[in-house]
């Protein structure tokens, strides 16, 4: 069965610029709130609108890379990675044999896009007819050996294509990895508004999880907090792309504990039951509307009031650690210039980081359609000298990125260096030429107080 789309009807959607995008240029985060998602039916309309707008831009991407056609084929439960960015909201998998063909410059009066769902040889007959009419000189396939988003064509489908199309067309197969990368990374007007709502919800969930509503020192474990977050996601009809991770980074308790035998090699605290004076860390993401977020925040468990400390507060050494990590975030964002490779951005950021006397690691990644999405990588935890292949890609001036990193800081109360981990998502603002926070960034610790004590946050 063959389906086609006329480009004119889809391109008209590109003119419907959501007013909220203009408002986003001056966006200032307020108190995070839980955002109730629309009905599934309403979500499908929103997602399909985004998908059609992104598809309408495929000819531009093909022309950018000098390719005439882009062809994908897959079987049920053996989908090309790009399929998940092309499908409608009502599709849960490919069916039978699903083919998708996109043309950079179709002949007058013909569509730029074709799709088949078929399990008979007819699909190849119809594909051959279109290729003969359009006569492309290149046919891009997702067969890159190095980039996952550009390597989704299964070997069996490649063999079947080559056999049924014959050597005349098989000789025109090419691998142009950036086509898939740029398509998966693309975003459209109106999407940012909803991405912000997802971020607000993620922050609100973290705020609740890191509060006395959930944590009772001496009783609650880090596992309890993780499962609270999972349950909250389910209750609000969100999901996630990874299990939440809550850890105790260190404890500033005056009670002696087992010292870290390697103070220059910080490691999470082995204890799981949360106590007063603990420094907590969470790695958490929400998923909805085909989008994913990634956030890492810090919290501190204040001790109860006592005659000697009637108003307990966050130790200055912790505040300094958070401020240092905020500075490292600024360094990385200022070096994220479109057109530079991820490895160049990493090198420039590390050079500036060390020049300012900061020690730490940088490991930023694209996000959006996937938690770890398509695009260049700016470091990895084990690859601070550069990332082979993926780090050599140029940073695109679109899409979303997770600024993920940590800075080391001396914590006098425990007599050791502690890693202060943070992660926030950013988007590229074409008008200012900068990467801006989608929601904001953590500049104050979340505070867990003893039951009965007043107040919610400790100002820096």
From TrEMBL:
Gene3D superfamilies membership: Creatinase/methionine aminopeptidase superfamily (3.90.230.10)
Task: Region Disordered: list its residue ranges.
Answer: 252-272
Q: What is this protein called?
A: Uncharacterized protein
Annotated keywords: Signal
The superkingdom of the source organism is Eukaryota
* Keyword Signal among UniProt keywords: yes
Where is this chain compositionally biased, Pro residues type? Answer: 256-267
Q: Which residues form the signal peptide?
A: 1-26
């Amino acid at each position: 069965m063959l389906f086609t789309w006329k480009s004119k009807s889809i391109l008209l959607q590109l003119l419907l610029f959501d007013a909220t995008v203009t408002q986003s240029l001056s966006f200032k985060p307020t108190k995070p709130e839980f955002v109730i998602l629309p009905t599934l039916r309403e979500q499908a309309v929103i997602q399909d609108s985004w998908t059609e707008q992104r598809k309408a831009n495929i000819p531009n991407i093909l022309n950018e890379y000098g390719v005439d056609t882009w062809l994908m084929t897959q079987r049920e439960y053996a989908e090309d990675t790009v399929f998940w960015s092309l499908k409608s909201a009502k599709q849960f998998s490919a069916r039978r044999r699903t083919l998708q063909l996109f043309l950079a410059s179709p002949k007058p009066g013909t569509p730029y896009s074709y799709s088949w769902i078929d399990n008979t040889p007819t699909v190849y007959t119809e594909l051959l007819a279109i290729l003969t009419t359009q006569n492309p000189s290149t046919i891009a396939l997702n067969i890159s050996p190095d980039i996952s988003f550009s390597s989704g064509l299964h070997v069996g489908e490649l063999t079947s294509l080559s056999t049924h199309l014959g050597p005349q067309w098989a000789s025109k197969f090419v691998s142009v990895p950036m086509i898939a990368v740029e398509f998966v990374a693309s975003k459209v007007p109106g999407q940012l508004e909803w991405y912000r709502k997802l971020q607000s919800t993620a922050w609100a969930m973290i705020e609740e999880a890191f509060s006395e509503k959930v944590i009772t020192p001496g009783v609650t474990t880090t596992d309890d907090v993780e499962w609270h977050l999972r349950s909250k996601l389910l209750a609000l009809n969100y999901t996630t792309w990874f299990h939440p991770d809550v850890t105790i980074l260190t404890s500033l308790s005056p009670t002696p504990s087992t010292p870290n035998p390697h103070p220059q090699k910080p490691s999470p605290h082995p204890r799981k039951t949360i106590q007063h004076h603990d420094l907590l860390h969470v790695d958490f993401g929400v998923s909805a509307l085909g989008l994913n977020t990634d956030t890492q925040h810090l919290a501190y468990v204040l001790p109860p009031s006592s005659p000697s400390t009637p108003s307990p507060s966050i130790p200055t050494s912790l505040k300094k650690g958070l401020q240092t990590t905020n500075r490292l975030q600024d360094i990385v964002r200022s070096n994220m210039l479109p057109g530079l490779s991820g490895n160049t951005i990493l090198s420039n950021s590390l050079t500036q980081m060390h020049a300012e006397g900061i020690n730490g690691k940088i490991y930023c990644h694209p996000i959006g359609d996937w938690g770890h999405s398509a695009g260049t990588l700016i470091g990895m935890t084990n690859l601070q000298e550069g990332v082979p292949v993926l780090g050599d890609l140029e940073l695109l001036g679109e899409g979303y990125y997770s600024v993920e990193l940590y800075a080391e800081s001396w914590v006098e109360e425990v007599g050791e260096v502690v890693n202060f981990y943070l992660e926030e998502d950013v988007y590229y603002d074409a008008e200012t030429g900068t990467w801006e926070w989608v929601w904001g960034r953590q500049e104050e610790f979340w505070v867990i107080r003893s039951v009965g004590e007043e107040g919610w946050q400790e100002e820096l």
